[in-house]
Design brief:
The complex is a heterodimer of chains A (about 600) and B (about 270).
Chain A: E1 4-5, E2 7-16, H1 20-33, E3 37-43, E4 50-60, E5 71-76, H2 79-85, E6 89-98, H3 105-111, E7 114-118, H4 120-128, H5 134-145, H6 150-161, H7 166-187, E8 193-194, E9 204-208, H8 209-219, E10 224-227, H9 234-247, E11 250-253, H10 257-270, E12 274-278, H11 280-295, E13 300-306, H12 323-328, E14 337-339, H13 344-361, E15 364-370, H14 371-375, E16 377-381, E17 397-398, H15 400-404, E18 423-424, E19 434-436, H16 450-470, E20 475-477, E21 484-489, H17 493-505, E22 510-515, E23 517-519, H18 523-530, E24 535-540, H19 546-555, E25 561-565, H20 573-582, E26 589-592
Helix pairs in contact in A: 1-5, 1-6, 4-5, 4-7, 5-7, 6-7, 8-9, 8-13, 10-11, 17-20
Chain B: H1 20-34, E1 42-46, E2 61-64, H2 70-80, E3 85-91, H3 92-98, H4 100-109, E4 114-119, H5 154-161, E5 165-170, H6 174-186, E6 191-196, H7 208-214, E7 215-217, H8 229-236, E8 243-250, H9 257-261, H10 268-272
Parallel strand pairs in B: 1-2, 1-3, 3-4, 4-6, 5-6, 7-8
Antiparallel strand pairs in B: 5-8
Helix pairs in contact in B: 1-6, 3-4, 5-8
Chain lengths: ~600, ~270
């Protein structure tokens, strides 16, 4: 088989605690430092130890936005991994494993899959002195198999184990080196997918969506985050907590999500940029306070990182089933803004832009992400996360210096043309005021009068009308005109982008429309955008097709086809392509069954 | 001491004539003036209920939140701006019922706020249902055969949850309440003042006379040591024929330092940056 350079995908699988995550992360870091682009997908279960976990890493010279269904190598830390995943290997691919792991010999040969059995544990014990270094041996062997420069692996081993002392570094390096050499000698010529460093490639970073949201918040000057732990939102708090002391951020773990959002409301009312974060279940508890924030015109940022529902659902699996929930959550009517980033770069932007929008409209802004986007890692260019490009716009905020100049009595909820009333930081003698979740007069006292109600309701809703004009149009990808338009939002971005490329390569003229700004939307402008579409295929990771429903409600445009996946596994570009080709003319809904964990049936 | 009148203002009250909330409002204004505070230095956070309307009936900063939720808002405000005197005002249903989760955690955090509980042992605004502090057997529209639950003991609960200042006052004695509130607001750390008050419309049992006949001041008991948790625990069990009021517990050892170092100090300057 002819060699393929720098287009490679590997899946590492095993029990939690066997080093799948650390091995995968280490390998990803090594390929990034060698100048390659990398996309990493983690799949884990809701337990601390045991169970089955895998980490899939795709490597290329070109930027990557998604995994795909072509698997070249399976690095199996246990027999279960072989059984679950080997069917996904492409012809000529192989299973790299310790001799203790069993593989179905006969069947592998029939499918053209290679068996790369190696004494990885023995190498760890003999060369390193402990079997715990087995995953180092495995990474070394994988590098040998792909002829990936050993220095890049050695570099990461050194930085990973530096804290544990020189002996640990030395032992791990020896283990990796022996495994590298043995794998290359024994199997190197049987494995055609090779990796080589890209000379002169720019330095890049690797991060996931939640880290990017947290960095965006930091860049925006967020000074307060109060949260309750919940997968998959917790890593936003964890990142800010780790940097809180350095950047002067107050980070509080609260007794529940109700307190989490309330504390953030309190901090925001006092004048600092404040946020909370949770997943759908936690957001359920926040809903009453969402209305309070809107009623008291308190700027607030909420990151809602979706996972499979309802109830506890699939706690470690992805889904996009909270869109209509966040659009309508809480009783009564009030302005809110919802943005749904789909890439790391968009997560960073959403992280800081949300604070500007919240301050500008003095109302809650929800960043709607999903589990897949939150923990899939990707190499990004250094300039993608550029704090110097972030502008901070606090809107009509009266700080103490501004309040010094006030001559007339301060009216917190003064009706204005824009609906936005200058907001005073409490604590200044010129602006002693009250506000309330009750309907209130302009000065913030309770009222039940019809005139007051209409005045304040109109004022608040004017903010939403205005925001609808400011919100951005959906983003096009691919040719200007096409026979097929894929429409999506959130974490499916990578799959839809790549599916568009694949469809065009196969002669199906396609493009892709991504909604980032999702609420409020301007009816006329969105109707015009959707008017450019010939065949509208809305792809979502939910059962009911929520974006399709929202767009139809807004514009009357019905999706020609809906493609939905709701098994908790991320959708792949190949699955999208298969669904589009299978239903090239008919309408209705395609529900994708099977997943990339072996069942593999499309459509 | 500032002029009491600077705290006058706000809306006309909707409280029933004779409501115990009037006494609490008067005592709070006296306490703030007594501490030489000014309206802009104070931020009152309330929940929902008759008593939670209090911030509307005086002049000071206010945030009238939702039912049961005053305490987390108050903590968020205090964390963001330590310069403000943050006082949470809730009722008994508000603070001890729907908001009890927040109540317990605010105490174990030792948040530097004062919590005034207007405890009239009934849900007034929703027309007379039994509250967490209603006597067992209390008959109401939601308990026509009498409440089967035992009443909460807020003093014992606060002691076990880690409150560093626990007091009880009576709306029948606003002068004493003023002194207790001043001590509570001065305390660095979480302070609770359980304010006994009648609901003249719905609670026909716990009237001004009922409280007057039973309450006595712990300050007048020479052997009572409010820093001794055993003394406090025993005192917390007294209810019925004799009801202790005054500063029941004070811990100046543990307070506040831990709370303050939990996060950096954010001031109004930070707020405006």
């Amino acid at each position: 088989m002819a060699e393929t350079i720098n287009s490679f995908q590997v899946r590492l699988g095993g029990e939690a605690g066997q080093g799948v995550e650390s091995g995968g992360a280490g390998f990803a870091r090594a390929v990034m430092r060698a100048g390659l682009h990398c996309f990493g997908l983690q799949d884990y279960m809701s337990r601390i130890r045991g169970g089955h976990n895998f980490y899939q890493i795709r490597v290329d010279e070109a930027p990557l936005y998604t995994f795909d269904d072509t698997l070249h190598l399976l690095l199996a830390f246990n027999t279960e991994t072989v059984d679950l995943h080997w069917h996904d290997l492409t012809e000529g691919g192989g299973i790299l494993h310790d001799t203790a792991v069993k593989v179905p010999d006969g069947e592998l040969g029939e499918k053209g899959v290679r068996d790369f059995s190696m004494p990885l544990t023995k190498i760890a014990e003999q060369e390193g002195g402990h079997k715990i270094m087995m995953n180092t041996a495995a990474i070394g062997a994988m590098a040998g198999l792909t002829s990936f420069p050993f220095e890049s692996i050695a570099d990461v081993i050194e930085s990973n184990f530096k804290r544990k002392g020189a002996d640990t570094v030395k032992n791990n390096l020896r283990v990796a080196e022996v495994a590298y050499r043995d794998a290359q000698e024994q199997y190197g010529s049987d494995f055609p997918w090779k990796l080589s460093a890209v000379p002169g490639a720019p330095k890049r970073m690797m991060m996931n969506g939640n880290q990017a949201i947290a960095m965006g918040a930091l860049a925006a000057g967020c000074k307060f985050i109060s949260t309750y732990p919940m997968t998959p939102a917790s890593t936003i708090t964890e990142w800010l907590a780790a940097h809180a002391a350095r950047f002067g951020i107050v980070q509080k773990q609260t007794e529940d999500e109700i307190a989490a959002i309330l504390m953030a409301v309190g901090a925001a009312h006092a004048g600092v940029r404040a946020m909370t974060a949770s997943s759908g279940g936690g957001f359920c508890l926040m809903v009453e306070t969402l209305g309070l924030a809107a009623m008291t015109e308190t700027p607030l940022v909420i990151a809602e990182v979706q996972r499979s529902g309802p109830s506890t659902g699939l706690p470690t699996r992805t889904e996009q089933s909270d869109l209509e929930f966040v659009l309508y959550a809480s009783h009564g009517e009030f302005p809110r803004i919802v943005i749904a980033p789909g890439t790391i770069e968009q997560c960073f932007e959403a992280g800081h832009r949300a604070f500007n929008l919240a301050d500008k409209y003095q109302t809650p802004v929800i960043i709607l992400s999903d589990l897949y986007l939150s923990n899939a890692i990707r190499t990004v260019e250094m300039e993608a996360i550029d704090f110097s490009q972030v502008t901070i716009d606090r809107g009509e905020l009266l700080d103490y210096a501004a309040l010094d100049q006030i001559t007339e009595g301060y009216v917190r909820h003064r009706p204005t043309e824009s609906g936005v009333s200058p907001r005073a930081i409490p604590g200044h003698p010129n602006a002693v005021y009250i506000t309330t979740g009750d309907e209130h007069t302009a000065v913030g006292h309770n009222t039940e009068e019809s005139d007051d109600r209409i005045e304040q309701m109109d004022k608040r809703m004017r903010k939403q009308e205005r925001a609808a004009q400011e919100m951005r149009l959906p983003v096009w990808y691919g040719p200007d005109t096409a026979d097929v338009t894929l429409v999506g939002w959130g974490g499916t971005y990578g799959a839809l982008r790549e599916a568009t490329d694949l469809l065009n390569a196969q002669g199906v003229s396609s493009n892709f429309l991504q909604f980032v700004d999702i609420f409020p939307l301007d009816e006329d402008r969105i109707t015009a955008e959707l008017g450019k579409i010939t065949r509208m295929i809305v792809v979502e990771q939910n059962f009911t097709g929520q974006l399709a429903h929202v767009l139809r409600g807004l514009t009357g445009r019905k999706a020609d086809l809906r493609v939905n996946k709701y098994d908790g596994r991320p959708i792949s570009p190949d699955e999208v392509v298969a669904a589009v080709l299978d239903r090239s003319t008919s309408g209705g809904t395609v529900r994708i069954s099977g997943s990339q964990s072996g069942e593999g049936t499309h459509v | 001491m500032s002029d009491l009148k600077i705290f006058n203002g706000g809306q006309k009250s909707t409280w029933c004539p004779g409501c115990g909330d009037f006494g609490i409002l008067a005592a709070l204004k006296q306490a703030l003036a007594g501490l030489d505070l000014h309206p802009h230095e104070v931020l009152l956070v309330s929940g929902i209920g008759c008593g939670s309307k209090l911030p509307h009936y005086m002049k000071a900063n206010g945030y009238n939140s939702i039912h049961g939720r005053a305490l987390p808002v108050a903590q968020g405000i205090k964390l963001a701006n330590h310069d403000l005197k943050v006082i949470a005002v809730t009722g008994d249903g508000d603070g001890y019922g729907i908001g009890q989760g927040h109540f317990v955690h605010a105490m174990r955090r030792n948040a530097d706020i004062t919590h005034i509980v207007e405890n009239n042992q009934v849900y007034g605004l929703t027309k007379g249902q039994y509250s967490p502090t209603s006597e067992r057997g209390y008959i109401s529209s939601f308990s026509p055969e009498g409440a089967i639950e035992f009443a909460i003991n807020p003093i014992a609960l606060a002691l076990s949850a880690g409150a560093t200042f626990i007091a009880r006052a009576s709306a029948a004695d606003p002068k004493h309440m003023n002194a207790v509130l001043q001590a509570a607001i001065t305390h660095r750390g979480y302070s609770i003042v359980d304010c006994l008050q009648p609901c003249v419309t719905y609670n026909k049992l716990n009237t001004y006379d009922w409280y007057r006949q039973r309450s006595y001041k712990v300050e007048e008991e020479p052997d009572y040591d409010r820093t001794n948790r055993d003394h406090v625990w025993a005192k917390a069990q007294e209810w019925g024929d004799r009801i202790p009021i005054g500063i029941l517990y004070e811990d100046t050892e543990r307070p506040f330092r831990s709370w303050r170092t939990r996060g950096p100090f954010l001031s109004a300057e930070t707020c405006s940056s």
